[in-house]
Amino acid sequence: MKTVQTSILFLLALLYCTGCVKEDLDDCPDGEEYTLVLLFEYLDMEGKDVFNERISSIDVAIYDENHQIYQWLNADEVVNNTDRSKTVKVDPGTYYIISWANDVTDRLGRNTLLEGLDLEHTYIYHTLSTESCDPLHYAPDLRSQSQRHLDVPDNPALYTVEVLNAGTTYHTVSYMGAHRTVNVFLRGFPEIADGRTPEMHVSINNLIELYDCFLNHGEEKVVYHKKAREVTVEEEYLGFAQFYVPHFDNESPVTINIAGTRTSGASYNFSVSMDDVLRELDLLLVEGDCEIINVVIEFKDLYVQIKVPEWLNNPVDWK
Length: 319
Description:
By secondary structure, this protein is mainly β. Helices cover about 15% and strands about 35% of the residues. It has five helices and 19 strands. Strands 1, 2, 3, 4, 5, 7, 8 and 9 form an eight-stranded mixed β-sheet that branches. The chain starts with a helix and ends in a 12-residue tail after the last strand.
């Protein structure tokens, strides 16, 4: 009898040690169920932490070593977590990890098409709104990379993580900007003087249609359009339109167009190239930064003139 009891006790001890028998304790580890911990960060060009002020929603795309979609995660809860981390259950292996933040417009439609997506054919579209894209942010941070290539990125280590079959693997998701803000101020147009400011139409043309997973650009064919609204800046009435737009280069076909009607009823349409705007503002765009482009376009009867907003050094509440 004593031999039987000893054998049973030995068997129970063996089962417990191999994980087949566990106590019902919440703080006991569940084997190697969770093997990947994502850590989120966002530093601006000066190294300042801007995560809280810029990020409101997070999607993480995980692709396997064959570039097939493995998981697409909603990680919005990270925004309110003090440790900015998310634990993910994955199998051991090599993965590509890409994240989009604040992609509110596209996320619902895209999430219905996840099955079968691969790394080379997943896109973030800028065509889902006629007025603006979302204030997008992207990870990994490529600001130190001079070039990108669709199939072979300059630094694959920025995208890839090797999840081990033992212990915990940590991977940092570092963001950079994937949009620019263009603020168009309008001065001297007849609608402003007549109180017809909302009848002015402002558009930004020749913007790119999409980003791929490596932030390469699609065709330049998107147009965003808004009606101007009236704002007061230093006791002066101005027309105003704000756009979030996808990245464009320092030399691009992007234009700002203003259309409306003179007091006589005759219509007008003026176009200003973004190249001229950047040249007048003496502004050099940096890929990955969230530049704010403030430009004043002044009506001169037969033409328009680009001007630097003279109030830029003073706090102005025009939103």
